[in-house]
UniProtKB/TrEMBL annotation:
Modified residues (N6-(pyridoxal phosphate)lysine): 276
Subcellular localization, as worded in the UniProt entry: Cytoplasm
PANTHER family referenced in this protein's UniProt entry, alphabetically: KYNURENINASE
Single GO term (MF): kynureninase activity
SUPFAM superfamilies, per the entry: PLP-dependent transferases
Lineage: Eukaryota, Metazoa, Chordata, Craniata, Vertebrata
Recorded superkingdom: Eukaryota
Task performed by this protein: Catalyzes the cleavage of L-kynurenine (L-Kyn) and L-3-hydroxykynurenine (L-3OHKyn) into anthranilic acid (AA) and 3-hydroxyanthranilic acid (3-OHAA), respectively. Has a preference for the L-3-hydroxy form. Also has cysteine-conjugate-beta-lyase activity.
Residues binding pyridoxal 5'-phosphate: 137-138, 165-168, 221, 250, 253, 275, 305, 333
GO BP field: 'de novo' NAD+ biosynthetic process from L-tryptophan; anthranilate metabolic process; L-kynurenine catabolic process; L-tryptophan catabolic process to kynurenine; quinolinate biosynthetic process
Name listed for the protein in its UniProt record: Kynureninase
A GO-annotated cellular component: cytoplasm
Record text on subunit structure and interactions: Homodimer.
EC number of the protein: 3.7.1.3
Length: 475
């Protein structure tokens, strides 16, 4: 990636605006950036919800026929248009051939997951034999922890961020209890420094250095769900392994969002869902990774039929021939309907490439940050003015596309007003509004429109008697 593109979105925005003879906050810049965007056609591959279909939208404030400003891919990605086509193919095959569908068609059901695993490997930076598509994220995390977490009297701790996603937290707690250990003694949490929202890499590495000999497993997010912080996975992996720890990552908010190189980084294990940035639909088929260095060392603790080698699986002799590596962790044949939905999205990623998407994402999120800071930074000379604080790191190497925002005004009022005017984003307790401009289907115009609507929402939150009609972002 061009270092300028990666490190200085603000410089690009200002330089481009200067060439256009306009301000960086002028909508003219958004239109120009969209015209120059080589990935803009991928938006047409997705269904964009109309404002009139959103349950909380107010069509007296905004034209119901307009596309919504969908900034919630961090929670649920939009539906690729090919999903219905691929689902219909499998439903038709089932209807017309019944059981013969297991061996026929572009996705024979017996090999359904394996038919699309190649499309996933580039997204996570792994070899084909290191990746499996199976189950849901938490199921996969439990399966992996059962094999990698082998506590001893001296090495029994699991290190994770203090505000890990609840599933990760609960998984670690239950795995510790499964071994008869005390959660308070064996779960080691990393907290931000007082007065800070995000974790410093040096603090994470310091704890690993200090506590490493007692840590069995380090389990971190790739991207932190609440703050949007992108952790330095290569450094954490290297530091942990030098202390003899296994290092794994929950990539729910990282996969399809940032560039990943799991094999090259030497990560021991990882898992992810596919319904956020990978757009596979709610409850979509999840994925898991085990590095090839563990192929013959790490075995599944719980075994199912699908982990048996396919060459002899159907001989039904109940004599296990376990597939090597992560494939031995598969339990059951995955739903072909989930496979089909994921297939539709992964094909788009294959065409667009993660590297190109990340380059656009850096500028797209940088554009949102630039506008937020321009219009809504805290004005110490006028404390009555509402302001927005970005708790996500400003350094582009420490974030994906998501920005997490807090407000000087009641956040729920701001959120409700955004919803009324066709913005789709979400709140995470206690006080964060998450907005994620996704490079596959969001435009620079979407970002500019969001900023305009946010200005209106803040005006209403400040003066509840306001009618909520769209005003200039600076109001």
């Amino acid at each position: 990636m061009d270092p300028l593109s990666y490190n200085s979105p603000a410089a690009i925005l200002e330089q481009t605006a200067s060439q256009l003879g306009c301000s960086p906050v002028d909508k003219k810049l958004a239109f120009h950036l969209d015209e120059q965007d080589g990935l803009r056609h991928f938006k047409d591959c997705f269904h964009i919800p109309k404002v009139k279909h959103l349950p909380s939208a107010d069509t007296t404030l905004v034209n119901g026929e307009r596309d919504s400003v969908y900034l919630c891919g961090n929670s649920l990605g939009l539906q690729p248009k090919k999903v219905k086509t691929y689902l219909d193919e499998e439903l038709d095959k089932w209807a017309t051939t019944g059981v013969y569908g297991h061996h026929n068609g572009k996705r024979p059901w017996i090999f359904g997951d394996e038919c699309i695993v190649d499309l996933m490997t580039d997204i996570v930076g792994a070899k084909k034999e290191e990746v499996a598509l199976m189950n849901g994220l938490t199921v996969n995390l439990h399966l992996l922890m059962l094999s990698f977490y082998k506590p001893t009297a001296s090495r029994h701790k699991v290190l994770l961020e203090a505000k890990a996603f609840p599933s990760d937290h609960y998984t670690v707690e239950s795995q510790i209890r499964l071994h008869g250990l005390d959660v308070q003694k064996s779960m080691l949490l990393v907290h931000p420094r007082e007065g800070e929202e995000t974790l410093r890499t040096e603090d994470i590495l310091s704890i690993i250095e200090k506590e490493g000999v007692s840590i069995a497993v380090i389990l971190f997010s790739g991207v932190q769900y609440y703050t949007g912080q992108l952790f330095n996975m290569p450094k954490i992996t290297k530091a942990g392994q030098e202390k003899g720890c296994f290092v794994g990552f929950d990539l729910a908010h990282a996969v399809g969002n940032v560039e990943l190189y799991l094999h090259d980084w030497g990560v021991d294990f990882a898992c992810w869902c596919s319904y956020k940035y990978l757009n596979s639909g709610a409850g979509g088929l999840a994925g898991a990774f085990i590095h090839e260095k563990h192929t013959h060392k790490i075995k599944p603790m719980l075994i199912g039929w699908w982990g048996h080698k396919v060459t002899t699986r159907f001989q039904m002799e109940n004599e296990l021939e376990l597939s090597s590596g992560i494939n031995g962790f598969r339990l059951s044949n995955p739903s072909i309907l989930l496979v089909s939905a994921l297939h539709a999205s992964l094909e788009i990623f294959s065409e667009a490439t993660v590297k190109a998407l990340r380059k656009k994402s850096v500028l797209l999120t940088g554009y949102m940050e630039y506008l937020l800071k321009h219009y809504f930074s805290e004005d110490k000379t006028n404390p009555e003015n509402p302001f927005v604080k970005i708790i996500t790191p400003s350094c582009v190497e420490e974030r994906g596309c998501q920005l997490s925002l807090t407000f000087s005004l009641p956040i729920k009022t701001v959120f409700e007003e955004l919803q009324k005017q066709g913005v789709v984003c979400d709140i995470r307790e206690p006080n964060s509004l998450r907005v994620a401009p996704v490079p596959l289907y969001n435009s620079f115009e979407d970002v500019h429109r969001f900023i305009e609507i946010l200005g209106s929402a803040l005006a209403v939150a400040k003066h509840p008697s306001s009618d909520g009609k769209l005003c200039n972002a600076s109001c």
